[in-house]
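Do me a favour: review this protein, sequence plus structure tokens, and tell me how the chain folds. Record follows.
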Amino acid sequence: MQISLNAILTLALSILLYYIGQALIRKSSFLRRSFIPAPVLGGLLFALINLLCHLNGSWVIHLDTTLQIPAMSGFFATVGLSVAFQGSSKLGRRGLQYWFLCGLMIIGQNITGILLATLLGIAPFLGVLAGSASMVGGHGLAVSIGPTAEALGVPAAQATAVAAATFGLVAGAFLGGPAARKLMEKNRLQSSQPVKNTSQKKTEEEPRSAFQSFIKEFNLERFLKHGFLLAILLTLSAASVPLLERFLPDLTIPSSVLSMFLGLLAGLILKNFSLIALHQPTLLFFQHLFLVVFLSMASMSLLLWELAALAVPLLIILIGQCLFTVFFSMNVTYKVMGRDYNAAVMTAGMIGHSLGATPTAIANMEAITEQRGPAEDAFLLVPLGGGFLGDLINVPLVLFLLNLLT
């Protein structure tokens, strides 16, 4: 039996699954210690149920995830606005350091993919598709680069890249938190602004504190102005993609990167001309809302039976990418970025965006900071370095390697 949910019902289900994920985390000390993001946990639970129903032939639920891409673009737009709001005082040396590490990660993933593909006796360009094209690039670049790769003679490039990106999204969400926890326990790290009460009861209620400032200072007019601003940014982003593809056909810019750039530009303009007073708690509210919807929809819509059908060589390459990414993040990123609490949180963030996407990185870091205390540097550096700036390196390199190896 085929069951189809429209966009509104899918949105409602995605929010319900977020709350189910939160409830599971509150009930399980293991999940709480592992810092698994609630929307990913709830969405994956639904995907597993859908898989079991598919395998026994009872029913399959088809979801209308039309709102997933706008939610992702909205998330990146709020990140751009937040970076402009916070200023660029910390984007100097440390920002360049993190960007440099992102570049090394991109190069390392492609080397890993090409070497493993060669050792397994398959075409090296498949190592690129299962490398930074789908890992760092995520679904956005996987979908964008697919037609270009197929035009270069790579068969089923988009399907391969999207499947690899799906694998990476789940892996990034489940590996980032435990890696950071291991670093924190081994080195006895804590935030310079720790959570006041670390009891289990307080920990369970802590996720609500992200909204306390927003609720306390809620102003309907300000809320509507921020919503209007984000609607304009999303409209501009959606309209700009086809225009860029028309006038610059050789340039591939994912809509998420474009949204972050437009958000950053809008934030700088508003900051200098005082057209709309940006309010950080309101921006964080919208950011968290978009993040929950995107991650929950991305996880719940996984067709796990398609992932199970991945060719064994491709699956080996993806496992190799996970091992390399976690090793690099824990042994290079953590040490270069200062060997402190912020560096450990950045490690979880780097694993999140290097295997999945920037929203996964933010979710990984939020899962940690809600329990262990703030890490302001991480939330400033990771989205910019792993999102917009990272793609400045990733997109040209992927195109170059595909042209070279096909």
